[in-house]
TrEMBL record:
Domain of life assignment: Bacteria
Domain 4Fe-4S ferredoxin-type: 635-667, 672-703, 704-732, 771-804
Protein name (database record): NAD(P)-binding domain-containing protein
Keywords: 4Fe-4S, Electron transport, Iron, Iron-sulfur, Metal-binding, Transport
Alphabetized Pfam families for the sequence: cNMP_binding, Fer4_11, Pyr_redox_3
């Protein structure tokens, strides 16, 4: 190509096309370089027939090209037509191998072609060409692919889609769209939220699952690829499923080596970091600009606006503001002080630790999904037991946490730059404390969706949030007057590890010295007696273990393994020892905890001569409890069948306490010896039912009860996600006549749950709508006296068990046998 151009645009995706179209409209000399033989390879590689969204809907589109939501084929045809009509200078089959030179005199080397000379360069190359490859055994097998071109090509296959972002969801939906193809489609999500995906896509996915066209596997990740099979790590252990084809859509990373070779600096050394950019998209290399997905801003409408804007900046339009400026200006209007949008964004980015490494573009996108607040000194931000799943970050000022419900004067400060409300974000629990502003304070409130998306897409933010979680867990568990400064070194050295169900974390007899904190899930502690593993105890989330070997220098006295898929934090033993040396009160607490655990060990040791009898029986009983979901319960109903007389008073009382619908099935469930686990909610530490509840209708109460409020829309997601079958979908029944009316006049169906036929007949007579809603045990929240099932049991057979009582229940079964 002869002659130097004003700007060379590399990449013809939405950002590059929009930039080239704007350069054409301004009469700016340019060239649009595309390495393939067609325009917009990003959209071109979408699956056939894909519906392309135009979000955010409230953002104005700035571009000389048209774009609205529609089919992939229609959008490509429109752009091809407009590019041709506008006479955009396009160079196809131009693979760039290097960019050298300085601002005003760049040379762009092309594979097999003459180089291009340009004054400035705009990189719009995206990230799609660098997919994250699966790193697991069998990943080289031919039925694993990273691209889906045409979902209509596949028939009668068991297909697993790995990846919970928009690309994975859209691929899964395309493969399951036509029932005539008879595909069995499964999508895996290692978490419980589809944080990376658009809300509309998640809604379509849930609808497909409800219709039986899709299988959603939450808390599941691939472990090994085999011919015709896929081994999965699930919350309950490994499982092998039939799998004829795997579509892996696990994201992509910037082509860092190439970009850095151009002289561009990235925001950090983390592999997922983005280039450092100025507000005009210029990189650390003067004259080279970056736009689009490579800038960390992947939505099509955003990309097209950036393409337009970068050319305007190069043309001297320094007063141009981004298209989202009016939206953000309105958001900041209520804050004190006269600052521009850019100044506000920089203040929040610089002052809040979790946002420090975000680019101005990422800050703008995050702020669109967040709220900002100005609090007066003493103003209450939220109250203990309030419902709420958002997270707050302090940009200026500080807050006080009222740690005592009885004495509001007992407080702990949280200062500028930190976060609070993270417990509601992670677990869905009600607010654990009242928080008020200690002084005039500016805060940023991130919705659950925005916070989870931030953590999923910005590694620096995830690391910062993770550090705060670990620090506060340490302070909460160990207490003893510790401060954040006391545990800083320990927190810095901590490592978070995912542990699959059944995996051993500590092996009895081993000589390692690290200690562990159960961050999520639960652990089983076992001791080898006579060559058999004997259950010692259960460790719920929030427990710590491994300190005995650290404190007294002994070898491990027991084996600890994951009861379900869990997450632990590992701390170096030598650092914990140094902390104990500095903090005598902490050592006293650790020694007291050790004494309790040694007591359990001594109990088992004292019965070892009768192993094969009582100890073995006890161990198997305890293991049965864990295997039946008590390993993640906070409150579970158990029935001693030696005392149960089958009167069904428990079910009747449950129904009479809950609008005539029982939340309990006494006869269902499993039994070991005379200990029965009926079908009733376990109120899990991390409730599976909370995942993908569109109206956020499932909450946790102040006493740990998991309940469904009246905003339920009856989608059934909770029923499908519950692994224990304790949620039912049913219509709210008509009001029954009272007990006296039934006794004296025979009115109504009598005590307990009304039959379906009676409910249906009464509903039809009244013309009531029979919409089904989700129904589950709420531990009789708000009912005086506690759970009705326990109160109504005439023999004391029904008991409610918390994790602290698991061991005593197992001993009780042993002693009464």
């Amino acid at each position: 190509m002869s002659g130097k151009v004003r700007v060379a645009i590399v990449g013809s995706g939405p950002a590059g096309l929009s930039a080239a179209a704007r350069a054409t409209a301004l009469g700016m000399s340019h060239v649009l370089i595309e390495k393939t033989d067609h325009l917009s390879d990003t959209i071109f590689k979408y699956q056939k027939g894909k519906h392309v969204m135009a979000t955010p809907s409230n953002l104005v589109l700035r571009s000389d090209l048209d774009f609205d939501a529609g089919k992939r084929e229609a959008i490509l045809a429109t752009w091809d037509e407009q590019v041709a009509a506008g006479k955009v200078n396009v160079l196809l089959n131009g693979e760039v191998t290097a960019i050298t030179g300085e601002k005003g005199a760049f040379t762009i080397a092309l594979k097999g072609r003459e180089p291009v000379e340009a004054e400035t360069v705009v990189l719009a190359i995206g990230t799609q060409g660098n997919p994250n490859l699966l790193r697991l055994p069998g990943a080289e097998l031919p039925h694993l692919q990273y691209q889906l071109d045409d979902p209509g090509e596949y028939f009668d296959e068991h297909i697993t889609v790995i990846g919970s972002g928009d690309a994975g969801i859209e691929n899964a939906l395309g493969l399951a769209a036509d029932p005539a193809q008879r595909n069995v489609v499964t999508i895996l999500n290692r978490g419980t939220d589809f944080a990376r995906a658009k809300g509309a896509n998640v809604k379509l996915l849930n609808e497909a699952a409800a219709d039986g066209r899709m299988i959603i596997r939450l808390e599941t990740s691939p472990a090994e690829v085999k011919a015709g099979e896929l081994v999965l790590d699930t919350r309950d252990g490994q499982e092998t499923i039939r799998c004829d084809r795997i579509i892996a859509r696990t994201g992509s990373k910037p082509p860092r080596a190439f970009v850095e070779a151009c002289g561009v600096t990235f925001a950090s050394e983390q592999p997922d970091a983005f280039p450092q950019l100025s507000p005009s998209f210029e990189t650390s290399k003067p004259g080279i600009h970056v736009i689009g997905a490579l800038a960390g801003y992947p939505l099509i409408k955003h990309c097209m606006n950036q393409g337009y804007d970068v050319i305007e900046f190069l043309n001297g339009n320094t007063s141009l503001k981004p298209a989202d400026e009016p939206i953000l200006a309105e958001k900041f209007a209520g804050l004190p002080g006269r600052r521009s949008v850019d100044q506000w964004l920089e203040l929040f980015r610089a002052n809040i630790v979790i946002l420090n490494e975000l680019s101005p573009l990422q800050m703008r996108e995050l702020m669109l999904d967040s709220r900002v607040h100005a609090h007066d000194a003493g103003e209450v931000i939220f109250v203990r037991n309030d419902q709420g799943s958002s997270m707050f970050a302090i940009a200026e000022g500080s807050v006080l946490v009222e740690v005592s419900a009885e004495d509001p004067s007992i407080t702990v400060p949280i200062g500028q730059g930190s976060i609070f409300g993270e417990v509601g974000l992670i677990s869905g629990r009600r607010r654990g404390a009242t928080i008020r502003a200690a002084e005039p304070t500016l805060s940023m409130e991130l919705s659950r969706t925005a916070a989870l998306k931030l953590m999923a897409t910005a590694p620096s933010a995830a690391r910062a949030v993770n550090r705060v979680f670990i620090e506060r867990q340490l302070l909460q568990i160990f207490g003893s007057g510790l401060t954040a400064e006391d545990v800083a070194e320990l927190v810095d050295a901590a490592a978070v590890e995912d542990i699959r169900a059944g995996k051993v974390v500590i092996q009895e007899g081993a000589g390692d010295k690290d200690i562990f904190l159960v961050r999520r899930g639960s652990m089983i502690v076992e001791k080898d007696i006579g060559g058999h593993p004997v259950f010692l105890s259960y460790l719920p989330a929030g427990s710590y273990f491994g300190e005995m070997a650290v404190i007294d220098g002994s070898k491990r006295t027991a084996t600890v393994k994951a009861a379900i898929k869990s997450e632990v934090v590992r701390f170096p033993g030598e650092m914990f020892t140094a902390l104990l040396d500095r903090k005598p009160r902490l050592r006293e607490k650790a020694l007291a905890d050790m004494a309790g655990r040694r007591e359990v060990n001594q109990f088992i040791e004292s019965r070892k001569d009768s192993f094969g009898g009582a100890v073995d029986y006890y161990s198997r009983t305890a293991q049965f409890l864990v295997d039946n979901g008590i390993g993640e319960a906070t409150d579970v109903l158990l029935i001693d069948e030696m005392l149960c007389v089958g009167c069904d008073n428990c079910e009747k009382a449950c129904a009479d306490s809950h609008d005539g619908l029982s939340r309990l099935d006494r006869e269902a469930g499993r039994t070991y010896a005379h200990l029965h686990v009926p079908t009733s909610c376990r109120h899990c530490e991390h409730p599976h039912c909370m995942a993908d509840c569109p109206p956020n209708a499932i909450k946790r109460g102040p006493d740990g009860e998991v309940f469904i409020d009246d905003t339920c829309i009856g989608c059934g997601n909770c029923q499908r996600n519950c692994p224990y079958g304790v949620i039912r979908m049913d219509a709210k029944p008509p009001k029954k006549p009272g007990l006296l009316s039934w006794m004296l006049f025979g009115a109504g169906p009598g005590p307990g749950e009304a039959s379906y036929s009676w409910r249906k007949k009464k509903a039809e007579a009244s013309g009531a709508e029979q919409a089904k809603l989700a129904i589950k045990c709420d531990m009789c929240s708000g009912i005086k006296g506690g759970p009705a099932c326990v109160r109504a049991c005439p023999t004391g057979a029904a008991i409610r068990v918390s994790p602290e009582r698991f061991l005593s229940v197992a001993r009780l079964v042993e002693d009464t046998d």
